[in-house]
Amino acid sequence: MATTVKKGPRTTVRAQAKRRSKDASSWKLRPSGGLQIVQSPALAKLDWLVHGFSTRLGGVSQLGPPDSNLRTSTKAERVLNLGFTDWDSRDNVSENRKRFLTAIGAGAMRVVTLRQVHSDIVHQISLSNPNAGAEAPKGDALLTRERGVLLAIQTADCIPILLVDTKRKAVAAIHAGWRGTLQRIAAKTLGRMQMEFGSQPTDVIAALGPGIGRCCYEVGHDVAGQFEAKFANARQWFEGPFDRVASGDNDPNWLPWLTMKPPGHAPPPERVHLDLIAANRSILMEAGVAAESISASGFCTACRTDLFFSYRRERTTGRLMTAIGIL
């Protein structure tokens, strides 16, 4: 890690780009049961494990009928919405979930979900744990060693992360938006695996699924400033004038005094692009996971709305599901 920092941000950015390209070339879409499922090649090799990242294709939900404002298209779209949203019915979502679970080979497993709140709260699921059968708990990460339990989280731009301890056969599913990333939820989940199961970071494989990429994820001072305050290497995860934006030097409240333009005519504040994949990769590596044991799908949800849901791109949209369990 120290050597990478000494080489400077440019070397790090090139290394990240090379790694993203390598990841993207190995992850594939897999047709199953009329759906298209994304899987991690590293996790797919483990015969005791079931996992999958959903796409929007192949469901029964109708997004954007011609007489609605849900989409700008003139035709209704049938999608695999896996979240209970305002525009969709519970029957549709239940059918979609049934199709998704069947497609990944988890139709008989007990599904555990969360009421996600963009936190760093981690829940362990066991047979004696009431969370395994009660109302979904609030939090953003789940972990277990129980067979027959499927951990599931939902996203529509945030980064879904799966952790697998290959020696102790323990698994975790993590929902990491910018708030969760800022709170190091991936590292905290790994720490919980160490505490509960004796997991060693060197035995862990991490798979980062489809989420919004640096290419599409613009943020302002409120986000950049918080990352700068918490991470010494934060600028490596941003593209654009990070120092100015993070410090608030482009604050529109005083910018007119510099530009000499009348109120209401000042240029908008500068923004930067945040790479949540690079940030979470770095957080996991700092926690002890080997670089070669971390891979990302290479899919940007905002770029590929033909395949995935993107809240930032579409606003009214569906929810993807990421699931993992031990057979």
Can you characterise this structure?
- The chain is an alpha+beta fold.
- It has a single domain (19-211, 272-326), classed as CNF1/YfiH-like putative cysteine hydrolases (4-Layer Sandwich), CATH 3.60.140.
- It is built from eleven helices and 17 strands.
- The protein has helices spanning 2-7, 9-26, 41-44, 90-104, 178-182, 185-197, 221-230, 242-247, 255-259, 276-286, 311-314, and strands at residues 28-32, 35-39, 49-53, 61-63, 77-79, 110-112, 122-125, 141-144, 149-155, 159-165, 170-176, 204-208, 218-219, 238-239, 272-274, 294-296, 320-326.
- The strands form five sheets. It has a six-stranded mixed β-sheet.
- Strand 10 (159-165) and strand 11 form a beta hairpin.
- The longest helix is centred in the first third of the chain and has 18 residues, at 9-26.
CATH homologous superfamily?
Answer: CNF1/YfiH-like putative cysteine hydrolases
User: What is the CATH level 1 assignment?
Assistant: Alpha Beta
Uncertain parts: 1-11
CATH domain topology: CNF1/YfiH-like putative cysteine hydrolases
Cα end-to-end separation:
36 Å
**Gyration radius, in Å:** 20 Å
Number of helices: 11
Question: What shape does the CA trace take?
Answer: globular
By CATH, the architecture is named: 4-Layer Sandwich
How many E-type strands? 17
Structure class: alpha+beta
> What fraction strand?
15-25%
Tally of separate domains: 1
Q: Please state the average pLDDT score.
A: 88
| Helical residues, percent | 25-40%
The biggest sheet, with number of strands, parallel, antiparallel or mixed sense and barrel status, is: 6 strands, mixed
Q: N-to-C SSE series? A: HHEEHEEEHEEEEEEHHEEHEHHEHEHE
| Strand numbers in spatial order across the main sheet | 7-8-11-10-12-16
